[in-house]
Amino acid sequence: MDYSDNKKEVGGTQSIGRATEILRVIAASDGVGFGLGEIAERSGIERPTAHRILRRLTAESMLVQNPLTRNYHLGPLLYELGLAASSSVPAQQLCKEALQELSEITGDSAFLTVRSGHDVVCLDRAEGHFPIRVLNLGVGQRRPLGCGAGSIALLSTLTDEQVEKILLKNSTLLAARAEPPINEFMKIVAQARTQGYAIKDAPDLPVRSLSMPLRDAYGNGICALSVSTLTVREEQNHDKMVGALKRMTETLALKIRGSIMFKDV
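== IclR family transcriptional regulator ==
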């Protein structure tokens, strides 16, 4: 048996994992990009190694570097590959329709979010007719899991062990966003499981979000539907919003399961 081949395979696999982690870190920069030092710190990858990976990803057009700021940004090849990629949510068109209906029923901004590694990503959003619109998350934006109601809803579908592992991984990022410590956050997730929905106030604005997970036939979280509005408006329409979320997630889950079963026949 040639052990050198195994070593090469392990090394190559590790490099892929590191490159993927770097791409996730940069994707979470909200478009401003990160420099080498920030990328190394956030990814936990040693600076020389991170530099080598960044150079190769840039050469492959997966990243571009701003010559003025020296920050790295996602490159055109990722966009091109994304056009050919399958949706991370089955029957995403059904989700889009449900999101639009949810925003029409509540009159507020509605969001579709999905888990991606240790992050949560906004896949779509719809704006309601209420004149004051809360657009706290743009399509394609990433946040560390633990940030936002949609994130809490998705975490509530996992085991306590899985949640603790994710929160520990994201602890520095969550602390920077003034999120509660892990022991308090575990209580928030437990409450979301009991209630069937997550509720979260913005740390610096009079804004509140409600979110409910969408589960597959086995109880696993597929995605989350959320509604964000002014806190006083949520207090006035709490039952209506929770009811709308419940109807939308239950109906959508049945439609998605049906579409998958039909596709597999």
